[in-house]
Write a structure and sequence with these properties.
Length: 243
Amino acid sequence: MATFTSLLACVLVGIAVVFQIFSVISAPVVSTIALCTYNGNRFGVFGWCNIQAQQCTPIRVGYELDSYDYMILNDFLPSNAKMSVSKLLIVHPISLVFTFILWILTLIISFHRLGNSRKMLIGMVLWSLPAVLLSLLSFLVDILLFVPQLAWPGWLLLVSTILIAVASSIICVMRRTVSLRKYERLRNNENIEMYPIHLNKDSKLPGGASADQRSNPKESTVISSSHLEEPELSYRFEIDSRS
């Protein structure tokens, strides 16, 4: 059954996926969504669109200035970054793929018994690390290219990074909880094996005492005190008990 922690991790990663989708489908995929609006152009992950001419570049990795003459500008990007840096925008779809797979895994542990598997949870923690790093790298690339004109889809990447990091911490807590539960079960099983519930009257307990002697502590006290008062009798008693 789904637990509150697993559902919370699933919701957080799901929101992070939605936030990253906004940046990936920016111009020229959807001309109305842009990572940055500058000098009459809307910039996105796979190109840009000119607002006045209502024309967009082909969908590709990196920006190129030889597509349309009207897009050749002296001050092309607000940060004056090199055009080669725009190729790093490819980390946006890669980050989306990693985050989407992490969301699928959180769905699995929420509605499947694999949520109690330590190996599954450890694998999810390891998978969440590159998801966090790629999301953070996407935000840093946007800062490098579009600051100070970065639009709201770019800032959503920062929120997405925080959400994935929180979800990763929750998964770590779930793994630790599962480990503690399994450790307690093993310890309880060992205690049950060491101390049997049913004992016969003739059965011997540790130390050579019978079950009746253990149940009647007064008799055992009398025997032990008599042994101390008469060492010879105690010595004989030990010999007889060994025989």
